[in-house]
């Protein structure tokens, strides 16, 4: 074999490889994205690696959000946006402002947030009322997925306001300001494991799916013991989000907010001039101050499945470099195998296998694939046409360092009962 030909072939391979973003000095390295030329190059490369999922409305400003969120590391940015796209599809984010989604009845009666519109800098402004919120009532009335859909609905509503403004005036930095009023906050309403877990998951979901959209978060009228509460969530806040949170015990925040927000948009009880039509400064037309949720809104126990509140869920730890299998015997054809599972912090791979009896070789029914069940419980079912042993398979063999805490539940439903259901 001609040695020079081999060398030439290797050189071509290296040259071809250098066209990837790894060799463009972009992957895992900080880039001066303020340099217009660098920005063009990295955006072009980022758009290329995402060409299979991007839509025409995904402009450069949209892509820059994800790049900034991961310090212009294309590998990490690509992973982040792909995971977010999967999440949006699962939760129905793209149709959540249409008739395909209806706000839960419990929220209609006990609203805890509303939009104040746009400020003079074209930022969306939203008010939350955590001080009067019945946290336990909400987590008892809505599954985690429904709480997330509710938050996504608010976030998408604000983004739509910004996009409508963008169509009129052209590109601008699309950001949102949050005002969180902690007046009348009581620790006993908040300090509950299920409430704290839900709060952490909602916060994580926001940071993972709406990066670089926060202008500022004003936490106002906070109680003296607020730092203790805030410290619970600090480990889950990234540095960028943390830098934009401003905490106030007094009314000093109002001067800063009013620099860009028309006082007529801010409720009078927060220092603005907005009132009810009858002049009531409490704005009862927007806020239900009697926020204690009636137990009639609470979910039945079987509707809590897959959450930490579901007492029927079993728990196990799937160690790193290992798998966990759960065999389920099906004695009647047409029975329905149902399962729901969730991990505490990380995703896991899941698949379904079948074998006729203990001596038979197992065959794959559902291929093993990554499931992002650390935020939303994975719930599914399978109609078993054959009798035998069906094996629920959780795979953590790809993880070298991290064990996964798994909550799970599975059952086989009789075919007669399945038909009735």
Automatic annotation (TrEMBL):
Residue ranges of every copy of the CRAL-TRIO domain listed in the record: 103-278
Record-linked Gene3D superfamilies: CRAL-TRIO lipid binding domain, GOLD domain
Cited SMART domains: CRAL_TRIO_N (SM01100), SEC14 (SM00516)
Domain GOLD, residue spans: 310-412
SUPFAM superfamilies: CRAL/TRIO domain, CRAL/TRIO N-terminal domain, Supernatant protein factor (SPF), C-terminal domain
GO cellular component, one term: cytoplasm
PANTHER family given in the database record: SEC14 RELATED PROTEIN, SEC14-LIKE PROTEIN 2
Annotated protein name in UniProt: SEC14-like protein 2
Protein source organism: Larinioides sclopetarius
């Amino acid at each position: 074999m001609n040695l020079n030909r081999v060398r030439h072939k290797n050189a071509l391979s290296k040259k071809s490889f250098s066209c990837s973003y790894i060799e463009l000095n972009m992957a895992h390295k900080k880039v001066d994205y303020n340099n217009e030329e660098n920005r063009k190059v990295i955006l072009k490369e980022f758009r290329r690696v995402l060409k299979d999922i991007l839509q025409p409305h995904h402009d450069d400003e949209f892509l820059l959000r994800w790049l900034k969120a991961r310090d212009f590391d294309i590998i990490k940015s690509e992973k982040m946006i792909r995971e977010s796209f999967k999440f949006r599809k699962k939760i129905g984010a793209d149709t959540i402002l249409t008739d395909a989604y209806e706000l839960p009845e419990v929220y209609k009666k006990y609203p805890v947030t509303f939009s104040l519109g746009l400020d003079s800098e074209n930022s969306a402004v939203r008010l939350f009322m955590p001080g009067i919120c019945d946290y336990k009532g909400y987590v008892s009335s809505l599954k985690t997925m429904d709480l997330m859909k509710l938050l996504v609905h608010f976030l998408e509503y604000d983004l739509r306001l910004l996009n409508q403004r963008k169509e009129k005036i052209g590109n601008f930095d699309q950001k949102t300001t949050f005002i969180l009023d902690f007046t009348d906050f009581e620790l006993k309403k908040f300090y509950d494991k299920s409430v704290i877990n839900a709060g952490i998951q909602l916060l994580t979901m926001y940071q993972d799916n709406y990066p670089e959209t926060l202008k500022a978060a004003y936490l106002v009228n906070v109680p003296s013991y607020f730092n203790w509460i805030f410290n619970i969530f600090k480990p889950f806040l990234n540095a960028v989000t943390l830098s934009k949170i401003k905490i106030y015990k007094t009314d000093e925040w109002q001067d800063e907010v009013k620099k860009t927000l028309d006082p007529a948009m801010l409720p009078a009880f927060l220092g603005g001039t907005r009132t009810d039509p009858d002049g009531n400064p409490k704005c009862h037309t927007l806020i239900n101050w009697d926020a204690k949720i009636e137990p009639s809104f609470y979910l039945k126990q079987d509707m809590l499945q897959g959450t930490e509140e579901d007492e029927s869920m079993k728990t196990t730890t799937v160690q790193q470099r290992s798998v966990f299998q759960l065999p389920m015997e099906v004695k009647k054809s047409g029975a329905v195998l149902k399962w729901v599972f969730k991990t505490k912090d990380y995703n896991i791979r899941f698949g379904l296998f079948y074998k006729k009896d203990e001596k038979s070789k197992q065959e794959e029914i559902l291929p093993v694939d990554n499931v992002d069940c650390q935020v939303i419980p994975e719930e599914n079912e399978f109609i078993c046409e054959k009798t035998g042993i069906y094996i629920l398979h959780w795979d953590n063999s790809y993880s070298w360092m991290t064990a996964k805490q798994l909550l799970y539940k599975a059952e086989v439903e009789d075919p007669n009962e399945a038909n009735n259901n």
